[in-house]
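Hey, quick one: can you model this chain's 3D structure?
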Amino acid sequence: MMTDTKKFLLYLLLLAVVPSSVHAQDNSSEFKVVPEESVTPPMIEPEEFYRGEVIEIIEEHQEDFGLGGTRPFVQTIKVKVLTGPETEQEKTLEYDSLMEEQKVAIGQRVVLLTPNNTTYIFDRYRLPALGGILLLFAALAIAFAGWRGLTSLVGLGVSVLVLALYVVPRIMAGGNPLVASLIGALMITFVSIYLAHGFNQRTTIAVTSTLITVVLAIGLAQLFVQWTSLTGSGSEEAFHLQTSPIAFVNLKGLLLGGIIIGALGVLDDITTAQTAAVYEIWRANPRLSRRELFKRGTSVGKEHITSLVNTLALAYVGASFPALLLFTVYQRPWWVVVNTEMISEEIVRTLVGSIALMAAVPISTSIAVWWLARRQLDASGGHATIKVH
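Sure thing. Here's the predicted structure for all 389 residues.
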């Protein structure tokens, strides 16, 4: 079942982005648009969130559930409210934790939730720590990459804004998740890559290569999802989306859109790096033939492919690691585990992304070689110094 934390996160998402009009879905997979005036917005009971600080641990004990089950720690604590209408008030609460690391300590900041005039601890307050980590990341990026590091951070911010202000609201409004994700990917590609790498010919080649590879990835994703009979309902979050007030979301389209956005995250890396490699090889020896320049550029790309494919696979495995452990606990046959939609989705994600990465190397290399040959031809007045063999 879904944890309370995940439930409340879903509620918060709905409160933040659900529009005043929704769309309904019939028995088919197509969307049916419902006129705005005929729709009643989903009714979700609002919660009030505040910040607080633990000022005293009154009592702590273990509680027996019976049948051999125990709750390792039950704490009775006193919390001082720091925000909201009850600021400076002190409340005595009971807090349950399953592990030693989950216990709260005196001085720790927490998030308080007050549904139905009842207060309890919703989560720990992590924003100051996250902000510090983000500042460290930004400082290192600027220190090592200078101005380009700063522009890359701006590009990252733009990517987040595109997802938060366009892709998610568009899907919540009943739009096709694949189309919304594709448009968002195009916006991210143009803005973030140019901001990070500058407005020049090399960046234009990288952008062009990325767009071509994204189109290829879309075709592969649709083919593989259809071939493996995936429905997009392989995760717990997808299941609860189906039973939520936004049940009209096309889960298969959401899966396809997620695959495209995930692949884009590494595609721009390999296209920009590959284009730069071809340029530097050409600068070192402008008399190389097109075939030789392509061969040497591809040789560099092979090493990039090997490392990125492994990185992509490990990233998806890491995200599914708790699920893999659960399958091991229940000792299911390996073929049953691999056959589940949850694991199959991650395999398809990895394979689509990996094939797109491999295709990006010859695509970006070919475009870069062609562009250099054309530029050299124009500069020499029609006499190319890049030989054609």
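One thing worth noting: The domain at 49-125 is CATH 2.40.50 (OB fold (Dihydrolipoamide Acetyltransferase, E2P)).
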